[in-house]
Amino acid sequence: KLLGIPFSECDWVVTDATEQDMLDAGYGHADPDAAFPVFLHPDTGEEYALARRETKTGAGYKGFAVEASPGVTLEEDLARRDLTINAMAEDADGKLIDPYGGHEDLDAGLLRHVTGAFVEDPVRLLRIARFAAKLGGHGFKVAHGTHGLMKRMAADADLQALKPERLWKELQRALDEPAPWRFFEVLQRCGALAVLLPELSLALDDDAGHGAKAQAGAITAMQRAVAAELSPQARLAVVLAGCDESLEALLQRLPVEKHY
User: Fold this and answer.
1) What residues contact residue 148 under an 8 Å CB cut-off, 6+ apart?
2) Alpha carbon distance 68, 95 (integer Å)
3) Alpha carbon of 207 to those of 63, 154, 173, 193, 220: distances in Å?
4) Exposed e or buried b for every residue in 19-33, given b needs 16+ CB within 10 A?
5) How far separated are the first and last CA of the chain, in Å rounded?
6) pTM
7) Of 67, 143, 212, 216, which residue has the fewest beta carbons closer than 10 angstroms?
8) What are the residue ranges in the chain where pLDDT is below 50?
9) Helix (H) or strand (E) segment spanning residue 233
10) Sheet of 28-29, strands arranged across
11) What is the pLDDT of residues 17-32, one digit of tens each?
12) How many Cα neighbours within 13 Å face the side chain of 26?
């Protein structure tokens, strides 16, 4: 909204309420089997989630204990978010609530982590890469300190345990963003692409001349594909074209749909 980018949904955080309060008010469960309660407004269908806090309890992106109770504040809920620009809220009157400097980072074009807890969830590497693809046209860059945390995460065993389905989900979404090549650039620069898609990482290194400053051929090809308004399928094809013999092995690991 603040960048003037069209959006199609509003998600709400509810404080000082219990699950029973929501049900009594006529809200229905979005997913009765979810790890935390999210409700649907009876008229608008918009999602309303109870404010929650998370505690790291084990390895991997599912190793968290979630608490949703009337005692959890909005500021605590926002502290769970990955990036400061995602840790802002508006109340029903449109007043901005920004405890972690998200608006300042929005103006500066910075993708910055909220707290050191950023490193606890390897999926956040994929999300920050996707946001770079989404906001690359606005000049957004990864903050220096956040890049340092990403390099630590790329070397952690949690990243190796990330499920291919989650990788493909974020990659697929990135392919449809305005600057999809940024997804691969961000992961390559922090070392995560070598773990997640080693065949592609090697191909990008080869294209760039093993560390030369010239852009990788695959990245340039994807930029041309976007300029030509080609499909996400074509964008994936051009970025993977340099994998040669290793392409089949890569595609066997990713749950890529047949139309790709």
Assistant:
1) none
2) 24
3) 38, 22, 25, 15, 10
4) eeebeeeebeeeeee
5) 32
6) 0.87
7) 212
8) 208-214
9) helix 232-240
10) 11-14, 47-50, 38-40, 28-29
11) 999 999 999 999 988 7
12) 5
Can you tell me which residue has the tokens 């603040």? Answer: 2
pLDDT digits (tens, 9 = 90+) for 49-58: 999 987 766 6
Q: Provide the 10 A C-beta neighbour count for residue 227.
A: 8
Helices (H), 15-61: 19-24
Please provide the size of the chain in residues: 260
Closest CA to 52 of 31, 32, 33, 74: 74
Q: Which two tokens stand for residue 207?
A: 């294209």
Residues 6+ apart with CB under 8 A from 167: 126, 196, 197, 254
Can you tell me which residue has the tokens 């001349």? 209
Contacts 24+ apart (CB under 8 A), 229-232: 232/172, 232/175, 232/176, 232/180
List Cβ neighbours of 53 (8 Å cut-off, separation of 6 or more).
66, 67, 72, 76, 77, 79, 80
Question: What pLDDT does 212 receive?
Answer: 47
Assign 209 to helix, strand or coil: coil
